[in-house]
Predict the structure.
Amino acid sequence: MSSLLDANERFVALADAIAARDAHPGDAITSLRETGRAAFAERGLPHTRLEEWRYTNLAPLSGLSLEPPSEDGRIDRSLLESLATPVFACGLAVFINGRPQEALGGLPAGDVSLTSLRDADPGTAGRLVDVKQHPLAALSAATTEDGIVVQIPAGVALEHPVHLVFVSSSPDAPSVSSPRVVIEAGAGSRAVVIQDHVSVAGGHAHFTNAVTEVHAGANSDLQLAVIQREDDADIHASNVAVHQERDSRFASHVITLGGRLVRNDLNVVLAGSGAECTMNGLYLGTGDRLIDNHTLVDHAVPHCTSHELYKGVLADDSRGVFRGRVVVRPDAQKTDATQQNPNLLLSDGTEIDTKPQLEIYADDVKCSHGSAIGRIDEEALFYMRARGIGQRDARALLTRGFAAEILATLPGEALAEALTADFVARMTGGTGA
């Protein structure tokens, strides 16, 4: 516990150092930092005695002596496109270590508005994520340097995705970046937003601590793809909070392919009658990586629908954690909710802790949940080998087929193809595949 206390003190000092070098009293960033610092100083890093963290030890994070990110991080367009392929043309915003890079971004078409969080009104960020309940979100707020506000006007249907690329780089020392995303989907709007986390190879471990807040207006249709494919030495935390109004449709695609230690939190509140939510997730574990997914769907009103499917592929000595909660409030009659978490284990050294949960306080509902843990189908493997396919290739094909159900749901053929190729390359690079 003393090491955790030491880490808490270091991280508070880190927040103070970031605030001191970038002081702009009265703006949205300063307000966010002050709230986050106070919450983190009170609670500190979570430990395994907390139910929400019992399977995830943050020792790899607490052991890092993090520094503020370098202020002179630069990459050129060719490197960006090699890291984040494909780069879409509708709206592109690029951040390096949490700072916007206007020269690499652009908005050639569409009515969407992409603005710096620094230029937004205080209170724009922080309304949907309770930093007193989410300690890593509190640390993110305390150490953030900028963010982006994505506004899709009412009635606007975007033809192409909005692509947000967050590049992490720690060439000189372990460092932190805390990007912030706020998405406002106006009533009746239609849009796809891709939040892409990548890293420059080499250097030291980097800690990305991202928070995304989404407001889906009445009758809006929004798809959000949160893609994490950073270096395997990096640590990544993601907290996505969604508030849905009447008849809105929201779909999330959480794809986790990189990182030494990853924690993904996704909380959705169905606050308007007729709202629909789809949550797709795929996580790949290789080496000794740990990937932790925590989700919460809050059916707060009647006549709402949620469907959740998270798939895990674990190889070598990797570990996975899944905890999904679906809460149906007392007045939320006519709820339709499903939740599934199948996992494929490719070696004897893997481990998965899965806990799907339904909390139902209404009586006129249709709800189901479940999880499954299994290995490669030996009969299917035998069938493929009998037709001349080698052991390794046959296992890779069957594993790709298991993941294809999630990858096929990604918005846009180009994105699905790129991530399928990335998934296959990372999977076959592990010793367990």
